[in-house]
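Researcher: Let's do a round of design. I'm pasting the structure tokens now; please hold your answer until I've finished.
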């Protein structure tokens, strides 16, 4: 390829990547592109990049940097990942839980559930769930030597399929306490999210925990409103919810202290504040006991 051809190819690649910027904002972990080649960005790999992971390509990094210029998405991703780590440590150290079901997981990148849990007790078992084939392919490569962790390819709204999957049945005994994590995924569940949550809760035994986060406009309406507007413009629905809405999802659970609060503040003793106050104020978090 001559110099002009190289320049043209690179320009074309940049245009294609920028065309896909909208996907990184509007699509949730369970709605990423199914094309796994290195020429197209993938939302799960974007989040991997935001979190400092290595499972991303040059095109993902290009798009991620474009988005970061407009929104504090990296800080938002790190806020919910930090919440997830704290929840997992709590489950293992204080409640003796050794089984985890991580719904809408994306790529289990830096600081993921199985790393945290198994660093505390190698016997901990983890089932990740995501519907995107690219995400699943990355995760299976990462987990191929870990007999106590697996990923299930399924829409999290198909609760029966998730719970009946052979890997779920192999690694999680629902007659014993388990933790269900719904971290970062619920704003993309537009069809009866309360019902989806209730069906997972119904499968859990006494002493199990359910942890969730949820995007909200309560504190930072301008920032979150821009994210929602961009999604709407592109025909994809992102649903932030109020504190009252999220409280209804948790009805019937015994909430652990400090209850439903901003995820950045949930049992964050000793952690440094985030670099973006707006990002820290965009997401609620809570943990409830069955």
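Researcher: That's everything. Go ahead.
Model: Designed sequence:
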């Amino acid at each position: 390829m001559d110099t002009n051809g190289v320049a043209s190819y690179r320009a074309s690649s940049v245009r294609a990547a920028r065309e896909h910027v909208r996907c990184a904002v509007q699509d949730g972990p369970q709605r990423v592109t199914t094309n796994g080649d290195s020429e197209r960005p993938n939302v799960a790999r974007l989040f991997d990049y935001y979190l400092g992971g290595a499972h991303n390509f040059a095109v993902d990094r290009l798009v991620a940097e474009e988005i970061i210029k407009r929104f504090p998405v990296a800080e938002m991703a790190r806020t919910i990942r930090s919440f997830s780590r704290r929840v997992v440590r709590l489950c293992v150290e204080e409640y003796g839980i050794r089984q985890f079901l991580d719904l809408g997981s994306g790529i289990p990148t830096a600081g993921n559930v199985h790393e945290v849990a198994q660093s505390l007790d190698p016997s901990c078992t983890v089932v990740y769930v995501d519907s995107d084939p690219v995400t699943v392919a990355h995760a299976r490569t990462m987990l191929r030597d870990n007999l106590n962790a697996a990923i299930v390819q399924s829409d999290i709204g198909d609760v029966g399929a998730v719970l009946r999957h052979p890997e779920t049945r192999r690694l999680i005994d629902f007659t014993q306490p388990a933790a269900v994590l719904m971290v970062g995924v619920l704003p993309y569940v537009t069809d009866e999210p309360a019902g989806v949550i209730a069906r997972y809760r119904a499968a859990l035994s006494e002493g199990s925990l359910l942890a969730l986060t949820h995007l909200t406009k309560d504190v930072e309406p301008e920032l979150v409103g821009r994210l929602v507007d961009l999604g709407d413009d592109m025909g994809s629905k992102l649903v932030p919810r109020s504190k009252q809405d999220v409280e209804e999802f948790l009805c019937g659970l015994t909430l652990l202290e400090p209850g439903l609060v901003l995820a950045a503040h949930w049992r964050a003793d000793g952690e440094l504040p985030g670099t973006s106050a707006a990002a820290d104020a965009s997401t609620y978090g809570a943990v409830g006991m069955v």
